[in-house]
Write a structure and sequence with these properties.
The chain has 247 residues and is an alpha/beta fold. It is built from 7 helices and 9 strands, in the order βαβββαβαβαβαββαα. Bound molecules: S-adenosylmethionine.
Length: 247
């Protein structure tokens, strides 16, 4: 998978991509990350990349010419890649969308700045607009880091068994159950005994219920999109009625 990041601030990526899993994935050749400085494609004397908005208003807008030159140059190298624009108005970034993007050959990700980019860039080149949440960042770079991170870990071989994605939150539409590791008791706080029981059926049941409990408490709307078993339904009903356990 090839990621091409189009940015005015390439230095912002050096930390996030030079540690841990993403770095290992690059080192193993499982992913490739290339940074392209949009300013290098501005051909006027001062290498200007932004200008005042037509119609007035606050802030500046990223100019169409440098972005076009940058995208066209990268697309020549990567004709099969999808062009993604980071923007608060985009499709919400979810685990499902990360899964879809992980099937692409490559992503060319545009990092906006200021008030955003000239709309014509979007109309001419962008395949998908993506938002990482209902808030406004100062620039698309943190959003691009989020995209690269979440998509990379779904590429076969990127996660070892130590960091498996199998049980992650959202994978089955629910939030993940609580996790514990040794010691079994810390400052009087005990690990739930079922996890020490060795009874795998009971552990699975406990985990499913804790996932349901947590999802109901924090993100109840997620439950509407999940296929629940009869037992799940019964448990959720009981939680909604104020009960904690039916055992
Ligand atoms: N004026 C724009 C608006 O109201 O939608 C906000 C521009 S923002 C200050 C600058 C850039 O940050 C955007 O062009 C986009 O690339 C990026 N950005 C900001 N918030 C984002 C979000 N929630 N998801 C993805 N990208 C975001």
């Amino acid at each position: 998978m090839k990621f091409d990041l189009l940015t005015l601030f390439p230095g912002m990526f050096s930390g996030p991509f030079s540690e841990s899993i993403v770095k290992n994935a690059v080192d193993k050749g499982l992913i490739e990350i290339s940074l392209h400085n949009i300013r290098d494609y501005a051909n006027d004397r001062h290498r200007v990349t932004d200008d005042y908005p037509y119609g007035g208003g606050a802030g500046m807008v990223m100019k169409v010419e440098p972005l076009t030159a940058c995208i066209e140059s990268v697309r020549t190298e990567r004709p099969a890649s999808k062009v993604v624009l980071t923007t608060p108005r985009g499709r919400p970034f979810t685990q499902a969308l990360a899964g879809e993007l992980a099937n692409e050959d490559g992503l060319i990700i545009i990092c906006g700045r200021y008030e955003g980019i000239d709309e014509r860039v979007s109309e001419m080149f962008v395949d998908l607009e993506v938002s990482i949440g209902d808030f406004v960042l100062t620039g698309g770079e943190p959003a691009a880091i989020v995209l690269v991170d979440a998509v990379s870990r779904l590429i076969p071989g990127v996660l070892g068994s130590k960091e498996s994605a199998e049980e992650d939150s959202f994978r089955n539409g629910l939030l993940e159950y609580p996790q514990y590791t040794r010691p079994p008791e810390f400052r009087g706080q005990m690990v739930p005994p079922v996890l020490l029981s060795g009874n795998h059926r009971e552990i699975e049941r406990w985990r499913r219920r804790e996932s349901l409990r947590r999802t109901l408490m924090v993100r109840p709307e997620l439950l509407d999109a999940v296929e629940l078993t009869e037992e799940d339904e019964k448990f959720v009903r009981m939680l909604r009625d104020g009960g904690g356990t039916d055992d």
